[in-house]
Structures are given as C-alpha cells and as structure tokens.
Amino acid sequence: MSAxxxxxxxxxxGGFIGEALVASLADDGYDVVSIxxxxxxxxxxxxxVAAAVDGADLLINLAGKSVDCRYTDANRDAILSSRVDTTxxxxxxxxxxxxxxxxxxxxxxxxxxxHAMDRPNTESTGELGTGFSVDVAKAWERAFFAGDLPxxxxxxxxxxxxxxxxxxxxxxxxxxxxxxxxxxxxxxxPPHRRYRGIGDDPTGGRPHGYRTRGRQRFSWVHxxxxxxxxxFLARRDDIEGVVNVAAxxxxxxxxxxxxxxxxxxMPVGLPSLRWMLEIAMWALRTEPELILxxxxxxxxxxxxxxxxxxxxxxxxALTDVERGRSVKRRAARLTxxxxx
Length: 340
Fold this sequence. Notes:
By secondary structure, the chain is of the alpha/beta class. It contains eleven helices and twelve strands. β3, α3 and β4 form a beta-alpha-beta unit. α1 crosses α6, α2 crosses α3 and α7 packs parallel to α11. 43% of the residues are buried.
C-alpha cells in the first residue's frame, strides 16, 4: 500500500503568487489544500483550518489584501487586518496541532526596509523604515514570530516586487503603454495622511519627498525564482527567520522605465514629477509610493546558502510578460470577433 502524498497548505492561494505555488507544489507531488474566502477551506471555519494544518508537511501563508489600491482609511485597515488576523489564525492552528507543519513560510515584504539610495538592505545590515507600509510589515512579522512553536521552522519571505503576469508588472506596463513611461521623479508631496503610521506602535507622519531624480532603486524577483526559493527552503532545515527574496542585482527607475517602454514598443515616455504622479495614480486607483520608494534589497542569506537565481535579466523578464499578454489579448479579440 503506497504512502499518502505530503500535504501542503496554501493560504491566500487565489493570487498571482499563490496560483504559481499551488501549481508547482502539485507538480512536486504534494496534496495541496487551499485556505481562503472562496477556497475549499474558509477562514471563518476555524475547525476546518485547524484540520487542514494538523498533519501538513508545509504551510505557506500569502493571505492579505492587495496594496495596489488607494490608501483610504478603509483600505488601510483592511491591508493590516487581512495580514495580521490570518497569520494569528494560522498561528493558533499550528500551536494546537498534534502534528504541526515542519515548515511554515509566511509572506512579508521588502518594503519593511527604509528608502535606500546609498546601499542595499540585507538581512544582517538592513535598516527598517517608518510609515504605513513599514508598520504593516512589522506587525505582520510580529504576529508570525510570536510565541514558541518548537516543532515548526518559521521563515518570513521579505519579497521584492514580483515580476510576472501579476498586478505589479501589469501596472508598470500600463504606465509605459499610456506614455507615462519616463523616469519618475520624487520630490515635493502634496500634504495628505494616507502614509501615516498604523497599528499598536505607529511611526511616521506626512509623506517624505526625496530628491531621487529617477534614480530610486528597484529591487525585483521573478515569479519562477519565488517558486524555486520555496522549494529550496523546504529542503534546507538550517534556514529560519527572515529571508530577503530579491534578485541579486537591483535596477533603478530610469533603467526600469526604459525597459518597459521597449517591452511595449512605446518610443517615448513622459518624465513624471511627484505631483503629476499623484494625479495619475489617483486615476489608476493606486499609490505613487509603489514606484517612488527606493527599494534596494540584497538576498544575502539565500546567496550565502548557495541558492542560484535563474531569472536575473530584468529586460528579458519584462519582455516575456508583455509578449505573453499580447498573445492573450489577440486570443481574446479573436474570441470576441468569433462570437459577433
């Protein structure tokens, strides 16, 4: 009689990263159980969550409202609670399990680090920032690392911007396609309170305006490497704590926007000042912070452990995404024309 396949539980599996991980885990022979608002296991069913976690080999938590939105008070509260509350619910399930998962990977974000123009932030030397996004990340990690779970190894994945056919890359390609693909200059910020701190220990106040001249750093990681990092960490019992998940070489905003213009075939891109981006991002229902903060992160621990990134050419990665989306758009047009 053959042994049952190992079980992997993925919370927040309906998103861009979650879908890629579910597919790869299934290919690797896992019995994959999803937790989410529309998954086979629902968050409100505490007993079902506990049953899914108990006996699982691997637990991955990606749950959280997308930050690709306007930071209204309602959205700010939802961004924080959707991360902290789901992490706490899983923590309770792991603590109560008779056979807890041997490995729990919890999403975090490289946005936890400060705006950095002088040097990259590593796990050992990085400096945490202030303000709304940083406070969310710190509260998320506090909930994850709280208490003692002696039989479960915990790793927080401080993810850089994930490149692939997901929301962040689509937003950047849209900017380039609409003629806004020039360098984006931070600077004077119209007064607002959307980036103020949040949670039990709020930090920061009004938004900062840095004189970046379009040289803010852009750390990124390809979705294929995110999947491979998960596989790598599942094999490495000696790695726990926080891990930066970012390609070894960061780009900067000027180079990024030039690559995006080339990918979509747009010969020109309007340079944008901060006040212009405030208007454009209001129209796109997202936040300038997503492209103006200088995210410079280095994957010190992964590199030292021997992990090799397969996708390190940002231009190639962006071109691949746009090529794939062009094929999908043509197929959709053909389908619509066939129906008419």
